[in-house]
Amino acid sequence: MTPGITPSSVVDRLRGMAQGASDRDQPDPGDRGDGTPVDEPPAAPSWRNALPFLVALGVVVVAAVGIGISYLVRPADDRMSTEAHVQHAINNAYTARNDLDYAKFRDATCAADLSSTTFPSESTFLGDNRRSFDENGHIVIPEISGVTVDGDRATAQVHWHFDEKSDQNQVTEMVVVREDGDWKVCTS
Fold first, then answer.
1. Within a domain: residue 43?
2. pLDDT digits over 141-162, tens only?
3. The pTM of the whole model exceeds 0.90
4. Which of 104, 108, 54, 65 is nearest to 85 (CA)?
5. At a CB cut-off of 8 Å and minimum separation 6, what does 103 contact?
6. How far apart are CA 174 and CA 172, in angstroms?
7. Cα separation of 87 and 10, whole Å?
8. Domains: count for the chain
9. Are 58 and 109 found together in one domain?
């Protein structure tokens, strides 16, 4: 043995080396093992972090409820555009002809036409439209285009055909006038 080295000192030295190695083998909790520090774990979610999103959600819900209530309270006719009112009036006149409904046809017609001597009587209206229906079928309107509104007067191009003669498309320019707030089909 070498002088100054005793077996107990060798054992102590080996123990110290082994303990140092085992300390190095254990990862440091603040170290990833490659020398870079580990980030702190994320904080637990808090309702304060979600507050801006909850406020935004509340605003969206209030706006949606307001829009829904306005649609329920306001009649459908008030929500329609002027062009839609004009198209609706034209559709009513053609639907009355298809349904052979003289009262509805009168309701869809302007006062000037109603007072005209050429306006058909109920029997003439029914006879003419029944004959047309028997020969050609219903009137079909696939499109109403070119709606132009000038105050209380509007014009539109009505594209139509009979359902039994769908290859014979017609285009008729219609005049529609506003009387007492309602749009009516008018020949003049």
1. no
2. 899 999 999 999 999 999 998 8
3. no
4. 108
5. none
6. 6
7. 107
8. 2
9. no
